[in-house]
Amino acid sequence: MTEQNNLLDANVQKSVATDSTESYFVLPMQNAQVEYYPNWLTHKHAKHLMNYFTEHLQWQQPSIVLYGQERKIPRLQAWYGDPDSQYEYSKLMMQPLPWDARLAKLKYACEQKCGAPFNSVLANWYRNGSDSMGMHSDNEPELGHQAVIASVSLGQTRRLTFKNIQTKESHRIGLEHGSLLVMKGNTQQFWQHGINKSRTQTGARLNFTFRYVKPK
Description:
Blueprint: H1 3-9, E1 14-17, E2 23-26, E3 33-37, H2 43-56, E4 63-66, E5 69-72, E6 76-81, E7 87-89, E8 92-94, H3 101-114, E9 120-126, E10 133-136, E11 149-155, E12 158-164, E13 170-175, E14 179-184, H4 187-190, E15 191-195, E16 205-211
Antiparallel strand pairs: 1-2, 2-3, 3-14, 4-5, 6-9, 7-8, 9-16, 10-15, 11-14, 11-16, 12-13, 12-15
């Protein structure tokens, strides 16, 4: 049974039919708007994109300073976007690479689904279950108030954890191959999210978080 089915059985999500072929789940998180589309891309299309992006994107493993020590991040990543979409997190300045043509098409599809513009994307490659993403909020000033973030997942299902900053309430959902997760509203102001290491979900996974960065 997949993670989101576990959540549905526990009545912590509700399903909303959008048409005859697509439904999405709304996570019942206070002071947040999070929507999950489990089959946004077909399995065949998602597999094709994963093979292409794995081979053609300019993956790197930069270092950040944690507790006074420099450490490589536990995953590979790449930052693509418009020329003026510089982005900084954990004191790491991200200079955008020029848009890959297929990545730009995926951005356009996310814009159409979300009804919001995006000018950049953070691509993350989780090579195995040892790769992870620490708990954080995408609340940097250059993302603006009530940022809309579209997260596309390819490959191995990994569990995403949400934790309320004030109440410590948590929700978890498995992000499946070809899925789309949309975070908007006050989500980043009240909630953190992250992906823990896993001993069971060990396959490769790509994730793309599209966003709009205010030009500097």
